[in-house]
Predict the structure.
Amino acid sequence: MNILILPDAAAVAARAAGIVARTLQAKPDAVLGLATGGTMQPVYAELVRRHRSGDLSFARAASFNLDEYVGLSRDHPGSYHRAMETALFAQTDFRPHATHLPRGDAPDPMAEAVAYETRITAAGGIDLQLMGIGINGHIGFNEPGSALTSQSRVVPLAPETRAANRRYFDRDADVPTQAITMGIATILSARACLLLATGAAKAQAVATMAMGEIGPACPASALRLHGDGTVLLDPAAAALLDPAIVATMDAAHG
Ligand code: GLP
């Protein structure tokens, strides 16, 4: 795991956008794994800016998002479909049928999760998977307790995750209780993984990810098993990391 501490959140977003751009330059038909959440918003803003300036095209790319809430249609204002359309898809040249999220309102969510995993495999797998981290160490919606071997499936959302995402919904009762998420094994099967964390609220989760035990208690710790995993942090998110560990991890992966 390569950990980079950058001067601020804007630098984290710019570096992440640069890594996406390099991936597409090397392989214009790359399959991108995308993520939602506030941390990703400046990354998508930068990708849109690069697209508008003529530097970046998604015309041959495909994408698969990590997750979606169970019960929400793609047009629901709180859905991840809607968030991705607004932040990225509608503002770039992604082909509509090349962007994928699990269907939250599928009649059989478990079957939808299995089909989603199959669609990822059929697309040739993911070249670069972007992700944030939950305050409890979740990636996608793989809450603590998720098996490192898990694949795409329906999961219940932890109370702290529902509370953290309450701001996207009108009322407490509107916050979904379940999601369809890629599993940890699905995420690890991406050829490269890129995790972003900014702000002091993520410092504990980041420290546990990098320095705690690798296992289900901190799903993000699984990234340490990946041969091409990069973590981009601002100083606040990196505040609880042991500097010696950061140096060791950087050295190990150049
Ligand atoms: C949600 C998403 C995660 C995301 C997390 C953190 O729970 N399912 O993929 O990483 O939120 O979001 P934020 O970046 O807003 O802190």
